[in-house]
Design brief:
Elements lengths: L13 H15 L6 E2 L2 E3 L6 E3 L5 E2 L7 H13 L8 H19 L2 H12 L7 H16 L9 H10 L4 H17 L5 H11 L7 H28 L10 H7 L15 H21 L2 H4 L5 H10 L4 H5 L11 H19 L3 H34 L3 H12 L4 H18 L3 H18 L4 H16 L6 H10 L3 H28 L1
Antiparallel strand pairs: 1-4, 2-3
Amino acid sequence: MKNKVKKHLKMPSSFTILFLITAFMAVLTWIIPAGQYSVIKNGPKGGEGIIPNSYHQIAPHTQGIWDVFMAPIKGVTGTATTEAAIPIALFILVIGGFLGVVNHTNALDDGIRAVVGKFKGKEKQLIPILMIIFALGGSTYGMAEETLAIMPLLIPVMISVGFDSIVAISIILIGTQVGILASTINPFATGVASQSLGVSVGDGIGYRIILWIIVVAISITYVYRYASKIEKDPTKSFVYYQREEDQKRFEINKINHAIDYKMSKRQKLVLCLFGGTFVTMIIGLIPWNTLNPRWDFFIKVTDKITHFPVLGKLIGTDFAPLGTWFYPEMTMLFLFMSVMVMFAFKMPENEYIDAFFDGMKDFIGVAMIVIIARGIQVVMNDGFISATILHSGESLLKGLSSSGFLIIEYLFYIPMTFLIPSSSGLAAATMGLIGPLSHFSGVASGLVITAYQAAVGLVSLINPTTGLVVGALAIAHIDLATWWRFMAKLILILFIVTILFLLVATMI
């Protein structure tokens, strides 16, 4: 009798899911009546805004097989009804190149090693310090899988001082993902969502900074209390049953010889440039003069510089003032700063080129997800069913408060994140509809983005389809069920706190 091999179901990739959704939307153009809203020119960058209660049906515009395969291609350059994906895709590739150059210097990894070495004997203090660092990385540039290289260093350090492997991976995994939960300028979450809504990445950044402070403080307290508890009583550890095995596996007896590390001056300079890049990006994205007409300092300074003899022409007369930046300026910033890192580290030109393109190569998948997801909007818009779906939503949401809409949106994105774990793909696939729907309930675009990011970050803490969770648990030899048991209370706390935050934010 032949042995039957039990096949495990494997979740399709984000690419497959997005393409199937595109095909499904094409089928819907044969079923759902085509329609349009009247529009008015009131969006940023000359974008269009829909006029409520102006929906009317038009002749069918059914989409076929040709249209499905052409949709991502059209999405790259844009159509009359869909904004081009090329600005965000190019930005993602260039930021990948920038990170590739920075990573080639080992400045980030060695910086963490230097911090760990400096706190030798005071490892408990590392918990808040490292979690803040990782949360800043998650919030600003979507720091995630690249932290896996730090875990083999941190795990033995934490075990050797009386903690466990859960504390070690929590510092990194929880730190980065709560940072993503409250992303400020994360290009893969905030950036794609903002571009889909046609607003600046700085739109709503004030809300996200406050949320970041709250969730990071909660997460640090959670991990710190757990560490303190098992420090007093090791049997309270969720992985106490494998404590002796972990001590052998991670060679705890050798740890005192492994954590002393000093950074070179070049690496320190690279870290300064790295941090300065993101600070500049934040300053460049916040629309200062629209927040307060008197905050036009950058506009005045830029005007004087560009009109200054010789210097103005040398810099370029098309130089955009800080506070008015969008994707072209951000892309330029990361390209320019990658060159600055090359000079600061005295990196040979051939190494810089290799590192830049290696970094871009790592982000090609992310850029392609954005492009394929944009194809969904192309099919829906060219088939003129977006307006019909919006009209149905308008009818359902009629009378719904802004807080009610935000909570529904937040709850909607939680299961959707399991289906499409790519934050950029999820934003590109759904924000084209969620954004206009939010207008019917009077919800600000910044809060729409905040609710979406909060759901993505919450799920990414435990999602078994993400590389960071799977990789971290594999390195630490912790099974998924144990991690879920440890995370259950924190997930519940963050879920409730986020809902309360969204409710309060709508009242401000």
